[in-house]
Amino acid sequence: MNNSSDLRIACVMVGLPARGKTYIAYKVSRYLTWLGIKTQIFSVGNYRRELVGLNLPHTFFDPHNTEGVKKRREAAACALDDMITWFEKDNGTVGIFDATNSSKKTRAWINETLTARNIQVLFIESVCDDDDVILCNIKDVKLSSPDYSERDPDEATEDFMKRIKHYEETYETVTEENLTYIKLVNVGSQYIINMIRGYLESRIVFYLMNLHTRPKRIWFSRHGESLFNLEDKIGGDAGLSPRGEQYALKLPELVRQNIGGRPLTVWTSSMTRTIQTARHLDFPKKQWKALDELDTGVCDGMTYDEIEAKYPDDFARRDEDKFNYRYRGGESYRDLVLRLEPVIMDLERHENILIISHQATIRCMYAYFMGLSHEQLPYARIPLHTIIELKPKAFSCEEKLYHVDVGSVDTYRPKGQTARKLKDDKFVSDIPVSSEGASGEIVDSNNAPILPIKPIGITRTNTR
Ligand SMILES: *[C@@H]1O[C@H](CO)[C@@H](O)[C@H](O)[C@H]1NC(C)=O
Ligand SMILES: *[C@@H]1O[C@H](CO)[C@@H](O)[C@H](O)[C@H]1NC(C)=O
Ligand SMILES: *[C@@H]1O[C@H](CO)[C@@H](O)[C@H](O)[C@H]1NC(C)=O
Ligand SMILES: *[C@@H]1O[C@H](CO)[C@@H](O)[C@H](O)[C@H]1NC(C)=O
Name one GO cellular component term (predicted). Predict the structure, then answer.
C-alpha cells in the first residue's frame, strides 16, 4: 500500500565527471536534512573504491575494458541495493544516487528497478561545456579526491581528462520523454524540466534552480546588546542598551575593515533592535518579517528564572529536545527553519548580503551552511557584537569571526544548564580574543558542536 506518508524519492545524478554532480548532491542533501527530511547520498564512486581500491589508471574507465565495466556495474548495483534497503528498512524519504554512467539503457534499468518498488525517480542532469569551469572543477575537487591522493597534480589532471573521454563514449544526455527529470545547463543558464510530480519534487527542483556555484561569502550579525538582554528577558521588542548602541556605531567601521567596498545589501528583521543596529550603515536595507526572533509565546518578556518557576515541565522538556520544543502559543526551532526557508533560497541566489538578525534565527541559517544536525543547531554559538563570515566551499564551509571590543552579556546557555548564567559588566563570552587588530579583530571560532554528531555531507574548516 502506498499513501502520502511513505512518499519516497530517488534523485539520480546524471552527467559526465567534473560537472559538479557530487556538489549538487551534497547541497540537496544538506538542504533537505535541514528541513527535517530524511535524506542520504549513495555514491557509486565510494562503492567502486571499496571494490577495487584507489589510484586506478584511466584505462579502468575505458568502456572496452570488460573487467572495468564489470566492476563498475557491480559497484552501481551494490549502491542501488543499499539505497533500496535504506528506503525500506530505515524509512528514508529522499535517496540521492550519485553515479556517473549515464546511458539511456542504465536509466531505463534504474527507472524500472525503483518504480517497481514504489520509489519515484527524479533524474538530475548537470550539463556543462565550459572548459574553464570543468578544469576548475577538476583542480578544486577531483584532485583532492582519494582516487588521486598520491599523484602529481598535472599528471592527475591529464589522467582525469582521459577518464572523461572514456565516459563521453557512452554518455547520452537525458531526452527520454517518459522520465521525470531536471537538466541544469551550464550552472544556471538554462533549465529543462520534464514531468515533475508532487510537492517535494517541486521543492527540490525549485531549490536546484536557485543554486549557483560561484564562490561567495555571507555575513551575519546579531543585533547589539538589547535592554532585554541586560535584564535576562527573552522576546519583546526592546531597543538597544548603551553598549548595544556603541556596537551599532562601530559597525560601519567593522564592515569597512573586514567586508571591504562591496555593494552590500543589509537585511534586518522587522524588530526595533536589529533596525537600530543597522541604522548607521550606509547601504540599501530590506526588512524581513521572516528574520524576526523565535516567538516565545506566553513566555515573551519573561526571564529564564521566571519560566523555570512558572512552567517547570516546559522548561525541562525544552532542555530535552530544544529543536522540537514549541513555546506555548509560540514557535519551535523546527517552525523557525520552515519560516526561514525563503530567506535561505534568496541567500543562495544573491551575493553580498549582510544579515542583522537574532540568536535563534542566525542559528538556523548557520546550521544550514555548516551542516549542523537538528541536535546541534539550537546550541550553536552566535556571540553578540561579532560579525560571522561564512564562505561556502564545495564540501565545507569556512568561518571567520570579526569581533568588536564592546562588552556584552553572554546569552549562551549550554544544554542541561539551569536558568542561571553569567552576568557581568565585562565581556564574558569565552571566545578568545586575538591580540591583533583594532576594532575588527578576527577571533578564533569556538563553535564546537555540543554533541559529537558528524555534520551531514560537510566538514568544518574553521579559519583563524
Ligand atoms: C554503462 O552504460 C553502458 C551502456 O548502456 C553499459 O553497457 C554499462 O554496463 C554501464 N555500466 C555500468 C557500470 O552501469
Ligand atoms: C520504519 O517504519 C515502520 C512502520 O512505521 C516502523 O515499524 C519501523 O520501526 C521504522 N524503522 C525505523 C528504522 O525507523
Ligand atoms: C519509467 O518508469 C515509469 C513507471 O514504471 C514508466 O511509465 C516509464 O515508461 C519509464 N520510462 C522509461 C524511459 O523507462
Ligand atoms: C516509455 O518508456 C518505455 C521504456 O523505455 C518505452 O518502451 C516506451 O516507448 C516509452 N513511451 C513513450 C510514450 O515514450
Answer: cytosol
CA of 170 to the centre of ligand 1 (A): 8
Give me the CATH number covering residue 18.
3.40.50.300
**126 Cβ neighbours under 8 A, 6+ residues apart:** 13, 14, 15, 19, 20, 21, 24, 184, 187
pLDDT tens digit sequence for 172-212: 999 999 999 999 998 788 999 999 999 999 999 999 999 88
Instruction: Tell me, yes or no, whether 287 and 385 share the same domain.
Output: yes
Which tens digits make up the pLDDT trace of 378-436?
999 999 999 999 998 878 899 999 999 898 888 888 876 543 343 333 333 333 333 22
DSSP 246-264: HHHHHHHHHHHHHT-S---
- The verdict on 161 and 29 lying in the same domain is yes
Among the options 223, 374, 385, 403, which is catalytic? 223
Ligand 3 binding pocket mutation candidate from 102, 103, 111, 123 (most atoms within 8 A of CB): 111
Count of domains for the chain = 2
Nearest C-alpha to atom 7 of ligand 3 is from which residue? 178
144-153, 187-196, 434-443: which has the minimum mean pLDDT? 434-443
Pick out the residues of the known binding site for substrate.
222-229, 273
User: What is the CATH number for 456?
Assistant: 3.40.50.1240
Highest mean pLDDT among 133-142, 169-178, 455-464: 169-178
Q: Range of 187's domain?
A: 9-210
**SS3 letters for 432-455?**
CCCCCCCCCEEECCCCCCCCCCCC
Q: In 3-state terms, what secondary structure has residue 459?
A: strand
* Ligand with the closest atom to the CA of 105: 1
Q: Whose CA is nearest to atom 6 of ligand 1?
A: 106
Q: Is 223 a catalytic residue?
A: yes
